[in-house]
């Protein structure tokens, strides 16, 4: 299994902790290849020292966050290609995130099986942030919550879920949402 972390690992966040815990537990069961990144000035979690096959990108904290997402995805994509071309029989485990399009495109091009973990309803998160969040400008709120943008997100999620080998939904509510998007509902499991 190739485990692709979706965020900087050194941050003190639930998301970063979740990435490390899942990878650490998978590594107890089988050899995994771990792909992830962290910002300079942060320390990597100690559990990662127990994973032999790991590729960690050190991200400069001087790079704006919006750019680091694309930089990170591009780097992960290259490491993924190097790894998968050595052994095409691997399965990918990746946590869904809106900025991961490049990776899902590579999975589709190379016909790679992937397990996708879905933790948050992106459309509902956008609506919530537009209503209660302070990080977005008024224009940003309108762009993220207009019908066209929300439909594009739904189509993207439908494509990713339909092409997934297996889907891990964190809650029963997320499973219900995914079931509205795909035909094969048997590949969705709720695992908190």
Structural write-up:
With 192 residues, the protein is an alpha/beta fold. The chain is built from seven helices and seven strands. The protein has helices spanning 14-29, 65-86, 101-109, 122-132, 138-145, 147-163, 172-179; strands spanning 2-8, 33-39, 53-59, 92-95, 114-118, 166-169, 188-190. A seven-stranded parallel beta sheet has the order 3-2-1-4-5-6-7, sandwiched between helices. Strand 6, helix 7 (172-179) and strand 7 form a beta-alpha-beta unit. Helix 2 (65-86) runs parallel beside helix 3 (101-109) and helix 4 (122-132) packs antiparallel against helix 5. The radius of gyration is 17 Å and the shape is globular. The model has no long low-confidence stretch (mean pLDDT 84).
Please give the count of helices.
7
- Spatial ordering of strands, largest sheet: 3-2-1-4-5-6-7
The secondary-structure element order is EHEEHEHEHHHEHE
Helix content: 40-55%
Q: Based on the structure, what is the oligomeric state of the protein chains?
A: single chain
Largest sheet: 7 strands, parallel
Quote the beta fraction: 15-25%
Note poorly predicted spans. none
> How many strand elements?
7
Radius of gyration: 17 Å
What gross morphology would you assign? globular
Distance between the termini: 20 Å
SS content category: alpha/beta
Mean pLDDT: 84
């Amino acid at each position: 299994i190739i485990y692709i972390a979706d965020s900087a690992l050194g941050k003190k966040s639930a998301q970063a902790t979740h990435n490390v815990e899942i990878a650490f537990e998978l590594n107890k069961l089988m050899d995994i290849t771990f792909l992830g990144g962290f910002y300079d000035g942060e320390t990597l979690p100690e559990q990662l020292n127990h994973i032999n096959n790991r590729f960690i990108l050190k991200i400069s904290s001087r790079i704006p966050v919006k750019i680091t997402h694309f930089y990170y995805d591009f780097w992960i994509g290259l490491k993924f290609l190097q790894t998968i071309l050595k052994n095409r029989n691997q399965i990918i485990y990746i946590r869904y995130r809106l900025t991961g399009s490049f990776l899902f495109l590579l999975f589709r091009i190379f016909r790679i099986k992937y397990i996708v973990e879905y933790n948050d309803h992106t459309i509902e998160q956008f609506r919530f942030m537009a209503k209660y969040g302070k990080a977005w400008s008024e224009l940003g709120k309108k762009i993220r919550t207009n019908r066209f943008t929300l439909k594009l997100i739904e189509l993207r999620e439908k494509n990713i879920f339909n092409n997934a080998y297996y889907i891990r939904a964190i809650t029963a509510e997320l499973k219900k949402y995914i079931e509205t998007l795909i035909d094969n509902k048997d590949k969705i499991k709720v695992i908190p």
